[in-house]
Amino acid sequence: MTFQESAHIALQDTQLRHNIGNATRAIRAKRNHVVAELPDWQELREAGRALKERVLRHLDHYLVQFEQAVQGNGGHVHWARDAAEANRVVVELVRATGVDEVVKSKSLTTEETRLNEALEENGIRPRETDLAQLIIQLGRDKPSHVLVPAIHKNRAEIRELFKRELGIEDLSDDPAELAEAARRHLRDRFLHARVGISGGNFGVAETGTIALFESEGNGRMCTTLPDTLITVLGIEKLIPTWQDFEVYLQLLPRSSTAERMNPYNSFWTGVHEGDGPREFHLVLVDNGRTNVLADEIGRQALNCIRCSACMNFCPVYERTGGHAYNSVYPGPIGAILTPQLEGLDRAGSLPYASSLCGACYDACPVKIDIPQVLVHLRREVVKSEGLDPEHAAMRAMANVFSSRRRYELAQRLARAGQWPLARHGVIQHLPGALSGWTATRDMLPVPKQSFRDWWRQR
Amino acid sequence: MSQAREEILGRIRTALRDVPDHEAPGDVRVERAYRRGSNESAEALVARFVERVADYRAEVERVPGASLGEAVARACERHGARRLVVPENVPAAARPEGLDLIPDDGLTHAELDAVDGVITGCAVAIADTGTIALDGAGDQGRRALTLVPDLHVCIVPGSRIVASVPEATARLSDAVTAQRPITLISGPSATSDIELRRVEGVHGPRRLVVLVVE
Questions:
Q1: A67-110 pLDDT, tens per residue?
Q2: CB under 8 Å to B27, separation ≥6 — which residues?
């Protein structure tokens, strides 16, 4: 299903639009407030962008450095070319421990590889521990936002779900009480978990340090209490040095949860005697990232630090919600990342999931020029489709617009041709192939006299 | 698996054909034009730190060194905490009489879950964000201590408060080099997962008490 088709369905859901509109309006206001607090926000954004550019232009160098650092600290490094390989590695590692249940903190990369399905097929039960991921897992639902996967659900819906799935009789829809129910449900599982699986926000090439930014403490539970920790990381998540956290620790929390700092930031460097897991495995995942890297314009999508500001500011996302994108990464970043990760043949409608208003670019803490990449990908889509009528028409238009003589001739022709279409000074329906333009908007007719004619008369 | 490694690195090199061979990582310019610190008075830093910790709905109090023990005792009483685990290097001044203070001699997770709270020091604290940083030093203990019990009483010497994030990460860099785990804590555990509204108290400690000692 294309984005346009699924968006059309999503737009019929008034409850969904209400839930998402409410949530994103609130977070936009908060985010603007905490960003305005930093007089050097633009300088931080520029540093955040440039550091990512440095890493991406020399990714092979940094990955090898990172691998050596992790191994030097007692960690094991595994490489996975695609989702199937990543899942196979993780399943084998879990099997080797002999457990049939793992606790899991939120990880978009494992959503991308569909790790949970692979674990279940192999008789291993993955327990999502992030509140929103738990809501998704219990509801057999799909995430619709990178930061708040259950943003499409309101408190009343979550209350019903918890009552049904956790067997709690007496539960209000107060968010604090719902969070408390999740705490009770997961507490013992954390304390007895032997294997934890996590994602990571950053890997430091120089030191082999992994960073996990979170709010609830479930990430700390999963990465601290089990004997064995398996972290799944996209290969683009590196930063050069520890010092660079001085930039990202300021950019990410303010852009994502709109706080000065999120509650917990954990940093671990391999294995540490007497504190935390005794065995640490890192799985580095490509899964299409090198395709993105190969495109000089599209490459900047790999700057993404998964903050979600772009979707919170996107007028399209706000109305369609995340599921319409049929992608792990919804919203503006998904519209440029997914087609590049999965191929235009599979996600070619996503670059059109935008009005090109540019709000996402302004909000992006690492200055990904999303509109530029959207337009670039649309060009690629058109190129791959060969000559279609629209393309031919656009070329003809370009030809007309590039010469004054042809343009004025066209104006005169249009003036003559439009009279059967114009009613009360607007054109409501264009015929045939042009009807798509007027399906959702009126068009103003060409005026009786153009500015140039008027000028010449004087 | 090394086959996967070689293939991925090969794909990367192919993808980066536009990057000239002679270009080194350091040749990609990174402008660090952002602020690094400030020349504020210690008083201004403490005041801002206290205000921002309070914004997270943590409890925060400025305490003269001489009455630290009383402040700890009061906080524990407020939260009904009697048995607290205390890492070995927490100073005697922070160990009031009348509480059951337990050393961490390899407590199991279940044993940790059964204590009421934990008393720790901190490595550095950030005024701009109201954040405390733990680096696993002797007055802070291993990570599980500040994670499993429900009350975390953190003692922050005024001298350890820096203005900004860049100053804090610089102070932590030796601990990272020594491969020690780092945890930054900003308020009690929280979630914004329901309707993007912040709620305090999920899996981590539900109560954070910060005592700034001057």
A1: 999 999 999 999 999 999 999 999 999 999 999 999 999 999 99
A2: none
Tokens of A172: 């209000």
CA distance A137 to A403: 59
Structure tokens at B133: 């940083």
Percentage of chain B lying above the pLDDT 70 cut: 100
Q: Determine whether B172 is exposed, middle or buried from the number of CB atoms within 10 Å of its CB (0-12, 13-18, 19+).
A: buried
**Binary contact (A290, B200; C-beta < 8 A):** no
Q: Token pair of A305, please?
A: 């630090």
Amino acid at A57: R
Instruction: Say what the pLDDT of residue A388 is.
Output: 74
Q: How far apart are CA A151 and CA A311, in angstroms?
A: 11
Instruction: Note whether B181 contacts A176, CB cutoff 8 Å.
Output: no
What is the pLDDT at residue A421? Answer: 81
Q: Is the pLDDT of residue A384 over 90?
A: no
pLDDT-derived band of residue A393, with 50, 70 and 90 as boundaries?
confident
Q: What is the rounded CA–CA span in Å between residue B154 and residue B151?
A: 10
Give me the residue label for tokens 């659900």. Answer: A153
Assess contact for B133 and B126: CB atoms under 8 A: yes
Mean pLDDT is lowest, of A98-112, A327-341, B120-134, B186-200, for: B186-200
What rounded mean pLDDT belongs to chain A?
94
pLDDT of residue B35: 96
User: From the CA atom positions of chain A, what is the Rg in Å?
Assistant: 25
Global confidence as pTM: 0.94
A216 → closest Cβ in B126, B128, B189: B189
Question: Which stretch of A73-87, A125-139, A419-433 has the lowest confidence by average pLDDT?
Answer: A419-433
Contact B28 A59 (CB under 8 A): no
Is residue A329 very low, low, confident or very high in pLDDT (cuts 50, 70, 90)?
very high
DSSP-derived letter for residue A447 is: P
Q: What is the DSSP string of A374-441?
A: HHHHHHHHHHHH-S-HHHHHHHHHHHHHT-HHHHHHHHHHHHHHSTTTEETTEE----GGGHHHHSSS
Q: How far is B36 from chain A (nearest CA, A)?
A: 9
Supply φ then ψ for residue B64, to 5 degrees: -70, 145
- Cα first-last separation, chain A: 56
- 8 Å CB contact of A129 and B203: yes
What mean pLDDT do residues B158-183 have? 97
CB atoms within 10 A of CB B30: 18
Are A31 and A255 in contact by the 8 Å Cβ rule? The answer is: yes
For the residues of A36-63, what is the DSSP string, one character each?
Answer: HT-TTHHHHHHHHHHHHHHHHHTHHHHH
Q: Are the beta carbons of A87 and A115 closer than 8 angstroms?
A: yes
User: To 10 degrees, the CA torsion angle through A104, A109, A113, A114?
Assistant: 40
A154 or A422, higher pLDDT: A154
CA distance A212 to A195: 17
| Number of residues that make up chain A | 458
Asked if A135 has any chain B CB less than 8 Å from its own CB, the reply is yes
